[in-house]
Amino acid sequence: MWEIIRTSLPQLLAAGFKYTIPLALISFFFGLIIALIAALIRLSHQRGPFMILKWFVQFYVWLFRSTPLLVQLFIVFFGLPYLRIRGILPHGIKLEPFTAGIITFSLNTGAYASETIRAAISSVDRGQWEAGAAIGMTRLQILWRIIIPQALRVALPPLSNSFISLVKDTSLAASITIMEMFEVSQQIAAANYQPLLMYTLVALIYAVFTTVLSVLQHYLEKRLGSQLEIS
């Protein structure tokens, strides 16, 4: 058993640092950008043609929050190549596994995080907008200098939890042949006929990763809280 662990652990860790962590970090980065844009659009009070964009964003959030992540991965990787449009996409949309994973995880994260950010911005007292306007600030200046810093304190815990969940969800990327930790553990288990040992080992590695992230989350929350109290 110890020999299997000794030989398998470096392979699993290499897959984790080469694919699992980068996949989670890149997807979360783009997901936050999508989430912020989606939240601001949904919070906007503009009318007219802008409502079409608002309805589209609402549909996007509903769609990705209402369907399983695994199904979304399959649609993006296996389904889009069959989206053939004569003269525009004669061969469909074929994506590399890692690219398909980033797109899917980013869109999924964006849908969930947009609700978190929208709620955090809405929780800031309306008087903050009025106070900023009273001293001559534009709405954009009020948003970035007053509202976002306060909303960040509210949004940080759930967003941190979303990132930790995303790290664990990257194991689903094995279904589209991305060589992350779970895919590597499956291949090793198929070779040494020790599935229980390999899956337990990869589970422990995920547990270590998420524990480190949880400690970092707690540190960031305390640091942000102390900075806001000082300011």
UniProtKB/TrEMBL annotation:
<keyword id="KW-1133">Transmembrane helix</keyword>
<feature type="transmembrane region" description="Helical">
    <location>
        <begin position="62"/>
        <end position="83"/>
    </location>
</feature>
<keyword id="KW-1003">Cell membrane</keyword>
<dbReference type="Pfam" id="PF00528">
    <property type="entry name" value="BPD_transp_1"/>
</dbReference>
<dbReference type="InterPro" id="IPR000515">
    <property type="entry name" value="MetI-like"/>
</dbReference>
<keyword id="KW-0812">Transmembrane</keyword>
<keyword id="KW-0472">Membrane</keyword>
<keyword id="KW-0813">Transport</keyword>
<feature type="transmembrane region" description="Helical">
    <location>
        <begin position="20"/>
        <end position="41"/>
    </location>
</feature>
<dbReference type="InterPro" id="IPR010065">
    <property type="entry name" value="AA_ABC_transptr_permease_3TM"/>
</dbReference>
<dbReference type="InterPro" id="IPR035906">
    <property type="entry name" value="MetI-like_sf"/>
</dbReference>
<feature type="transmembrane region" description="Helical">
    <location>
        <begin position="196"/>
        <end position="216"/>
    </location>
</feature>
<comment type="similarity">
    <text>Belongs to the binding-protein-dependent transport system permease family.</text>
</comment>
<protein>
    <submittedName>
        <fullName>Amino acid ABC transporter permease</fullName>
    </submittedName>
</protein>
<keyword id="KW-0029">Amino-acid transport</keyword>
<dbReference type="InterPro" id="IPR043429">
    <property type="entry name" value="ArtM/GltK/GlnP/TcyL/YhdX-like"/>
</dbReference>
<feature type="domain" description="ABC transmembrane type-1">
    <location>
        <begin position="17"/>
        <end position="217"/>
    </location>
</feature>
